[in-house]
Write a structure and sequence with these properties.
Length: 306
């Protein structure tokens, strides 16, 4: 196929794929169409620079397009998802990282007091926050905590790729018995400099409307437990109160309506001299920022058993 014929074929493929995805209800049909065409062509180069297409291009594009028409997330189709400076591996059955979560790393660095050397990522999922911390803070070592075995396995792969030898994954249930071996191991990491967390926080009645989320993100990574969805986030806050060194900071994502409740949970946990809500890039209240009081010694297990 000549270069001119290739460009005609690409224009036709882009138009048809965009139309099909649009009819299927995909929110960004043109962007997704370009990504699928590049995947079928086996290239990372701009499509306008291609002079030829592989022999199986049409069949491969049809297969990829059909999957996206069924509202399978683009990231799962491609097997990867961009997150800050990284291209993370993603896998069916593991929460797909969202662009809005990226701000947590900036908030951590902006509110940190002192060096960021020992970090913890609670409810790490596939390891997006932990991997980004390893990538952007060369002196950091990160413990990523996750309850689900599939997610923990994927997180270990992403952490090792981002910071070889500097990250590890602990499988543990943050709401479980604090005396369990796994949570005893977590407790032994104290004191730490910062904690990042994007825990499940959706209330039970707030069922996601997007098919990509409802059918492909695991429900245990979405619904936070309890009537308000904050059972797991409260456990994260309690663990932060226990693990952080004086001056250490917790950055935890939550729903835009949960700011007051998250602040209240941090105040009730005690030991924080700063408790505030930070907005995302659209101005919505999305992150709890809580800093351990500089003069407050690291609490003991009573914070988790009261």
């Amino acid at each position: 196929m000549s270069g001119a014929a290739t460009r005609v074929a690409l224009r036709e493929a882009l138009a048809e794929t965009t139309q099909r995805l649009g009819r299927a209800g995909v929110a960004s049909p043109s962007v997704d169409a370009r990504a699928l065409i590049a995947e079928a062509a086996g290239t990372e180069r701009p499509l306008v620079l291609l002079d030829d297409l592989p022999a199986g291009f049409a069949a491969q594009l049809e297969q990829l397009t059909a999957r996206r028409e069924r509202r399978e997330p683009l990231q799962l189709i491609l097997g990867r998802a961009p997150f800050r400076r990284l291209m993370l591996r993603v896998r069916e059955g593991v929460f797909i990282p969202r662009p809005e979560t990226e701000l947590a790393v900036d908030l951590m660095q902006a509110h940190a007091s002192g060096p960021l050397e020992n970090l913890v990522d609670l409810c790490t999922g596939g390891g997006a926050l932990a991997a980004s911390a390893l990538d952007e803070i060369p002196t950091a070592r990160v413990l990523a905590v996750e309850i689900d075995p599939r997610a923990a396995e994927l997180a270990a792969e992403n952490l090792e790729a981002a910071g070889p030898g500097r990250g590890r994954v602990l499988r543990a249930d943050l709401t479980g018995d604090p005396g369990s071996p796994e949570l005893a191991e977590l407790a032994a990491t104290a004191p730490v400099d910062a904690i990042l967390s994007n825990p499940p926080y959706i209330p039970p009645e707030a069922v996601p409307r997007d098919a990509e989320v409802l059918e492909h993100d695991p429900h245990h990574a979405l619904f936070g437990g309890g009537e308000d969805g904050l059972e797991v986030p409260r456990a994260v806050i309690d663990w932060a109160a226990r693990l952080l060194r004086p001056g250490g900071v917790l950055i935890m994502e939550h729903a835009d309506v949960q700011g007051p409740a998250a602040q209240d949970a941090a105040t009730r946990a005690g030991g924080f001299d700063t408790v505030r809500t930070a907005g995302d890039l659209t101005g919505r209240d999305r992150f709890l920022v809580a800093r351990r009081a500089a003069g407050d010694p690291t609490p003991g297990s009573e914070r988790l058993t009261r």
